[in-house]
Amino acid sequence: MKNLVIEGQSLEWLLVAATDPMLIVDREGHIVLANPALERLFGHRQEALLGQSLEMLVPQRYRDHHGALRSDFFASPRPRAMGAGTELLALHAEGHEFPVEVSLSPLRTAQDMPLVLATIHDISSRRAAEVALQESEARMRAIFETAVDAIITIDERGRLERFNPAAQRLFGYTEQEVAGKNVSILMPEPHRGQHDHYLASYLSTGEKKIIGKGREVEGMRKDGSLFPMDLAVAEMRLGERRMFTGMVRDISDRKLNEEKNRLLLQELSSANEELTNFAYVVSHDLKAPLRGIGSLADWLATDYAEQFNDEGREHMRLLINRVHRMSSLIDGILQYSRVGRVKEALLPVDLNRLLADVVDLLAPPPHIRVTVAPDLPTVVMEPTRIQQVFHNLISNAINYMNKDQGEVEVGVRDAGSHWRFHVRDNGPGIEERHFERIFQLFQTLASRDRVESTGVGLALVKKIVEMYQGEVGVESTMGAGATFWFTLPKMGPRTRI
Q1: Residue 192 to residue 187: CA distance in whole angstroms
Q2: Last residue of a domain, which of 200, 234, 250?
Q3: Which residue among 128, 162, 178 closes a domain?
Q4: Global pTM?
Q5: 142 in helix, strand or coil?
Q6: 202: left (phi > 0), else alpha (psi -120 to 50), else beta?
């Protein structure tokens, strides 16, 4: 750097000591001095800069215009910022461009030669931050403008500042109509009269009632109509200012559905009460005369047995069997109606002990062997319900057995979150087209005069298993037997049905 005397003083010491990039240029645009900070900024060594045109530091497309700006400065020299209001770009030695700000100061040498001192600031970081801020603002503006929920912003005095399109549609006001007005215009009494007091109380005490919590309140539209809404309020600070943003959602449809559900539950409760009364009538008013018919039929069949011919005795047998079937059918209907309505305590049930009791109660005939797998799990259920499930499945396997040596197997396997139980037999099997039908109420495949069945058992099994969030099904090959399976959650039912 050559010594340069400006009005009797050397600037070399000043430029070397300066931390900001600086250079001095003459009227023709030649670089007279450049400090180390400028060398680092542009990537040029000092000897490559001195005497060169200043435009080497300017992108090619701006060089002609830059020369005109320099001429304008020397025509009217005064301290100022270069290119005020425009974006200035500088060119690095490696060819990439970067944004800068330039401050210009006029100088004169001892020989009265006009010069200019340029101080250059790299603003790449600031410009990147500005771009990021602009992008963030654009995203927030897009969210604000397109949000489905109403978004309302107020200041600490409760005055409305922002009112997005969803809020305008919901409340019926334009943003211009509400700007600067108290947010209480969106509230019915008594909330309207209390709002300013609540806001002042919060600002002085910090006690929160809605802010940061959210609650259901009523809103009031421009036409005076009221509607239920969810309101969530968040507080934010912009410097010394405190702002509040409210997110509002119209919950009219939800409230309407809740009312419909309430009425439906009320109807279901009434229906359950009617079902309870029906079960009482069936239990007492139907079974009492049925027992009388059964007793009379037994008396006739016993006391007048010798007076009946073969046909008469067969008719009496059918009568007695059908009375018993009718009694069983009534019991089955009562059991079906109680599932989910009459509740017992949920208890851990040891299936090893329960299956032993079920098999003992059924007392299978000698030609049918019932095998139960060891180490069955313990499940959390109503004991009576799981007993009904196994009783019906094993009973069906026994009743429909058509082999001289019948085999019924009860087992389980681990199915992850569930246990998968099965009752497998080597009986006649079931055609696939009947798989869904057999789980329907009162459906049976065999003649009721050949196999005693009410058609309730499998329907009862399905209802109980599904009540405990399980599944039930059947697999079968004709002539080789059938496998009825069902699942139960290991952790018990998620909710009490």
Answers
A1: 5
A2: 250
A3: 128
A4: 0.46
A5: helix
A6: alpha
